[in-house]
């Protein structure tokens, strides 16, 4: 009898999030096939989202059991940019939660090999917090031969579990999501002397100031810049009597900073978390983060400053 326990002591009541880094084909098969078969034996929905090579290997090993999977999908079709990909992922998770007491997912985020896909590491970090109560096992597959070392380093820091050879074990490099996010944000350099700075008390004033900066920089992105800044100003004015809005260009990037003297953000991961579907749910940070190309946060009990970065495309 095998002593391999594909999900260890996981009891199916909360998220288990494991990174499995593989090189050889057999190494992958020996990890994923028992994981899939255990789920099928327990009557759990089992989903596999992976690249062509991984799907081919698993199809050959699973044989007729392939038809018992809830999903067997090409990962190449999933990447839509970080926020849009997570939004689709969130929608599918909520749909599963409505019909299944627990489920499991083996997923290979193939887009991590692309420059524009590496921001996904931030969402992997945030998932540990925003999906902590969802009853599923997420086995994330990472090809050692395809991914550069910095990406593999981020994988190790964003997954609480790793494979120990016969069962999942705590990952020694795992970091708190907020700490990880701060480490991958753009460097927080001193605001340049050339920056346009204004202390504002209404969102309308902010829209005018930011619109002028965006029109001078790149008119095609005015709408995105203004809307993103507007959402942050609305949030800031809920906790402070005025907001300081600054803007400047740095080579091919427009930077917009919104700063307040409020009590600080209660959770710096909120900009990466899909908002609830209720009409009155707060979604300002999610929308601002979605519209900008990058974001950096400096938050403490004496105030918060958020920088939005818009690249000239």
Automatic annotation (TrEMBL):
<dbReference type="InterPro" id="IPR036890">
    <property type="entry name" value="HATPase_C_sf"/>
</dbReference>
<dbReference type="Pfam" id="PF13581">
    <property type="entry name" value="HATPase_c_2"/>
</dbReference>
<dbReference type="InterPro" id="IPR050267">
    <property type="entry name" value="Anti-sigma-factor_SerPK"/>
</dbReference>
<protein>
    <submittedName>
        <fullName>Histidine kinase-like ATPase domain-containing protein</fullName>
    </submittedName>
</protein>
<dbReference type="InterPro" id="IPR047718">
    <property type="entry name" value="RsbA-like_anti_sig"/>
</dbReference>
<dbReference type="Pfam" id="PF14417">
    <property type="entry name" value="MEDS"/>
</dbReference>
<dbReference type="InterPro" id="IPR025847">
    <property type="entry name" value="MEDS_domain"/>
</dbReference>
<dbReference type="InterPro" id="IPR003594">
    <property type="entry name" value="HATPase_dom"/>
</dbReference>
<keyword id="KW-0418">Kinase</keyword>
<feature type="domain" description="Histidine kinase/HSP90-like ATPase">
    <location>
        <begin position="199"/>
        <end position="308"/>
    </location>
</feature>
<feature type="domain" description="MEDS">
    <location>
        <begin position="17"/>
        <end position="160"/>
    </location>
</feature>
<keyword id="KW-0808">Transferase</keyword>
<keyword id="KW-0723">Serine/threonine-protein kinase</keyword>
<dbReference type="GO" id="GO:0004674">
    <property type="term" value="F:protein serine/threonine kinase activity"/>
</dbReference>
């Amino acid at each position: 009898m095998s002593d391999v326990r594909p999900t260890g002591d996981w009891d199916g009541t909360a998220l288990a999030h494991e990174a499995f880094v593989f090189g050889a084909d057999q190494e992958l098969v020996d990890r994923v096939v028992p994981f899939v078969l255990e789920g099928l034996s327990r009557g759990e929905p089992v989903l596999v989202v992976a690249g062509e090579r991984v799907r081919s290997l698993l199809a050959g090993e699973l044989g007729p059991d392939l038809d018992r999977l809830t999903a067997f999908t090409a990962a190449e079709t999933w990447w839509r940019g970080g926020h849009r990909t997570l939004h689709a992922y969130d929608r599918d998770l909520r749909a599963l939660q409505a019909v299944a007491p627990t489920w499991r997912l083996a997923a290979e985020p193939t887009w991590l090999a692309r420059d524009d896909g590496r921001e996904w590491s931030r969402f992997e970090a945030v998932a540990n917090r925003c999906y902590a109560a969802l009853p599923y096992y997420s086995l994330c597959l990472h090809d050692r031969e395809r991914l550069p070392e910095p990406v593999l380093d981020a994988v190790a820091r964003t997954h609480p579990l790793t494979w120990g050879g016969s069962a999942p074990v705590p990952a020694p490099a795992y970091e708190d999501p907020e700490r990880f996010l701060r480490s991958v944000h753009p460097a927080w350099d001193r605001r340049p002397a050339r920056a346009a700075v204004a202390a504002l008390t209404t969102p309308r004033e902010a829209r005018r100031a930011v619109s002028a900066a965006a029109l001078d920089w790149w008119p095609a992105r005015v709408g995105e810049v203004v809307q993103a800044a507007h959402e942050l100003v609305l949030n800031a004015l809920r906790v402070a009597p005025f907001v300081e809005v600054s803007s400047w260009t740095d080579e091919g990037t427009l930077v917009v900073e919104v700063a307040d003297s409020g009590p600080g953000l209660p959770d710096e991961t909120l900009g990466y978390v899909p908002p609830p579907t209720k009409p009155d749910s707060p979604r300002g940070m999610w929308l601002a983060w979605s519209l900008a190309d990058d974001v950096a946060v400096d938050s403490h009990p004496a105030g918060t400053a958020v920088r939005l970065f818009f690249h000239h495309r």
